[in-house]
């Protein structure tokens, strides 16, 4: 039996207690119409999260650019799994999703976001 599922719930509760997560949106573009003339329709998925900066060590010998931001989205607040084809929006700023990982506790999606 693993303690990680319980840890994820405790982390989410603690973050919410301190009002850290803010309202944000992951936008997925859904394709419809004929294959030769597809129409992309943005579908917003509301969630809770926050943005942080990468450390200087994260920029050394990596694909993290100097203006990239590290976004965290509570897994329990998002009804989809984010991908690099989606966009992340917080505070009126829209970011391209460069990479997505899940934290070890399973509480948050960790997104490399680029404006």
Describe it.
With 115 residues, the chain is of the alpha+beta class. The chain is built from two helices and six strands. It has a six-stranded antiparallel barrel. The longest helix has 14 residues, at 4-17. It is globular, with a radius of gyration of 16 Å. 20% of the residues are buried.
Q: Report low-confidence residues grouped into runs of 5 or more.
A: none
Radius of gyration: 16 Å
Note the main sheet. Answer: 6 strands, antiparallel, barrel
**Distance N terminus to C terminus?**
41 Å
- The general outline is globular
Per DSSP, the total helix count is 2
Biggest sheet, strands in spatial order?
1-2-3-6-5-4
Count of β-strands: 6
Please bin the fraction of helical residues.
Answer: 10-25%
Mean pLDDT: 88
Structural class, from helix and strand content? alpha+beta
Strand content: over 45%
Could you give the order of the helices and strands? HEEHEEEE
List the helices and strands and how they pair.
Layout: H1 4-17, E1 22-32, E2 39-53, H2 56-59, E3 69-74, E4 87-90, E5 93-102, E6 108-114
Provide a quick synopsis of the model:
The protein is an alpha+beta fold and 115 residues long.
Features:
115 residues, six-stranded antiparallel β-barrel, single chain, 2 helices, globular, alpha+beta
């Amino acid at each position: 039996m693993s303690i990680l599922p319980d840890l994820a719930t405790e982390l989410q509760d603690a973050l919410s207690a301190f009002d850290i997560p803010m309202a944000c949106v992951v936008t997925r573009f859904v394709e419809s119409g004929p294959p030769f003339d597809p129409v992309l329709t943005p579908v917003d998925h509301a969630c809770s999260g926050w943005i942080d900066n990468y450390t200087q060590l994260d920029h050394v010998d990596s694909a993290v650019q100097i203006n990239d931001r590290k976004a965290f989205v509570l897994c329990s607040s998002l009804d989809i799994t984010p991908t690099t084809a989606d966009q992340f929006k917080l505070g009126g700023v829209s970011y391209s999703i460069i990479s997505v990982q899940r934290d070890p506790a399973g509480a948050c999606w960790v997104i490399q976001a680029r404006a």
